[in-house]
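Work Package 3 (structural annotation) set out to generate three-dimensional models for the target panel prioritized at the project kickoff. During this period the team completed the workflow that converts sequence records into discrete structure tokens, so that structures can be stored uniformly alongside our sequence database. As a representative example, we reproduce one entry of 238 residues exactly as it appears in the project archive.
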Amino acid sequence: MAGPVKTEAVVLRSMRYGEADRILHVYTPMRGKISAIAKGVRRSKSRFGGRLEPFFRLNLELHEGRSDLMTVTGAETVSAYAKLRADEGALNSAARACDSLGRVFDSGEPHPEVFNLLCSALSLLDEHPERATDEFQVAFRLKLLLAAGFAPQLAACASCGESGELVGFSPAAGGVICASCEAGSFELDAETHRFLTDALGRPLAETPSADPRVIALADRAISETAAHHGQVRLKAIA
């Protein structure tokens, strides 16, 4: 229904448009991903200042009309995550997390738990920039897939249900595979399996460390699962 909309939001992406405007992609708890135009925001006297930039957490006032684009009419900062912005690694990690979320949850469906996950990730990067690691990205993506309903099966063979020796990973089956069902899978060693299990089960602040080989293999398992079951193409972590 057309009219005013008030919502909390995190800016995923901000793009220049025309001479003075910006197009924003934001994520909200109850309306999912929204696109909006902020008119005149790039003028020096804009009342919005610099708060309509990526990773700002805001209280937004919008006008919803007939266009797919809402119009920003007001914005109040909840958190600017200022320390995150001063660290190149944390800034890059925040950008990758927002990109992953925008690809997996590219609709207007409400997912308040996903909004809370993003805010937790940004807060963690702001308070502890040293956590801006590839392992952090793997853990964040796994939790996104869990919220989307297609996290990989890691406790038992995704094909037959056996919990014995698990030797491979099948994106088509949706998880780890035993030796009897390994056709069509790629090899997944015990170290990578353990890392995936820990990264999925622990809070982001307790993400385990891993060597680059394990991270690359875990990223492959996540990316191919997202592509097969969610038709989502994630950018490679490494």
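The two ends are 43 Å apart (CA to CA).
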